[in-house]
């Protein structure tokens, strides 16, 4: 009768220890989350204080520390922004630049990823074309812009192509390097498990290069806008680049800063979107690639 009694006591002790361990782990998890929240809050507060400090010095120092003609003023920039936000033409310019950038970004990203993946599989072609691609990528796009305007005209097409050329090379080299950089040991394991070349490429190499591709997509985002703005600077009758050029050529410093702020805010929003997509894609990578190899 004593042995079952001792067993029950042991079971009770184990359950109690397990409960205490779970409570300790939960408390530690909450503590870590609280520390992370405090840190993020501190960073945001410091960033806000920095921005407010710069704006205050900028506004108060105008006419005392520097000439507002060259640097403008926060109040003047806010006035221009409020005026533009009430202007229908501003939204038309924003829409046109957004269309040009979106199409150029998608065209450059898709073609760069596709060709980078193709050349990663076809090494001979990659070695043949690599010096030519490096040479083409070294051409300053502002020097290429006049040719594109001659070839495609002053409408949206020239800006889309100019934007796409900037994005293309970033995505091409990122994809090529990412696929080639996959650990050979992982590829050998896939071969041992019976995967063929196609399965290795789509289930090992391409997912393995996902971080490179997503990083390339994030880095190429501002270059897509740069291509559009350069094109609109040189030949356009609408768009944010045209509006920026109009302000700068009329020596309107406040208007120039206002357009730069609009572009900066747009880039920050798009970068946040890309980061969210990257987090989702990287989070689901193990789920999408793991079972495929075992079934091969």
Q: What sort of overall outline do the alpha carbons produce when their principal axes are compared? A: flat
- Round the Cα radius of gyration to an integer and report it: 28 Å
Mean pLDDT: 84
Estimated structural class:
mainly alpha
CATH superfamily grouping of the largest domain: MetI-like
CATH topology of the largest domain: MetI-like fold
State the separation between the terminal residues, measured CA to CA. Answer: 56 Å
Subcellular location: Cell membrane
Organism: Bradyrhizobium canariense
Domain ABC transmembrane type-1: 90-274
Protein name: NitT/TauT family transport system permease protein
Top keywords for this entry?
296 residues, mainly alpha, MetI-like fold, 2 domains, 12 helices, 88% helix, membrane
